[in-house]
Amino acid sequence: MLTPSFVALDLETTGLDTDKDSIIDIALVRFENGEPMENLSFLVKPEKEISSFVNYLTGINSAELSSALPFKEIAPKVLEFIGQSPIVAHNSAFDSKVFSLALTRNGFKNLNFVFWDSLAIAQAAWTFESHKLVNLVKQLNISVSASHRALPDAEACGKVFCLGLAELLKYDKEVREKFEKVLIGTEYKTLFENSEVQGVAQ
Q: Which CATH architecture has domain 6-201?
């Protein structure tokens, strides 16, 4: 099936407070027709020291981050890579806020992005007990090199999104039409406006 082009995004951060914590690892993977085509990733010098837990979880240590570039210096390359593409993230409410705040704090203002959430798509597509990315990777037999690092997680997120969208498009016409009505007025509506995608679903 054909799927819309998008950029999958994943962030590793100093913590889970979207207002106070900062990015330490950012990765983007461009998907076209359901396949990862190119990627971009950076370690980012944080605004505060990382905890031992974050070091353990990600494998990223303070020594690596001390030589990394600050977010302000990598942001232009990140924005150029995204361009006008929609962004897919797993639990996009977190990533979109952290990403947008990081841009704003560094002088990159009035930027608007379309975010699609692979978590929401997965929850709609499958009745798994858990829809955490690490569990979806196992349930769907997605091949990844590691977890809790931005680049493999971004690729896994994009693959989950594509598989979930394909699963939703298997629904019969009545269910799909009700589903599309729910999406009216949301950023997800554009997923089903593409005639090629709709043609596959018929």
A: 2-Layer Sandwich (3.30)
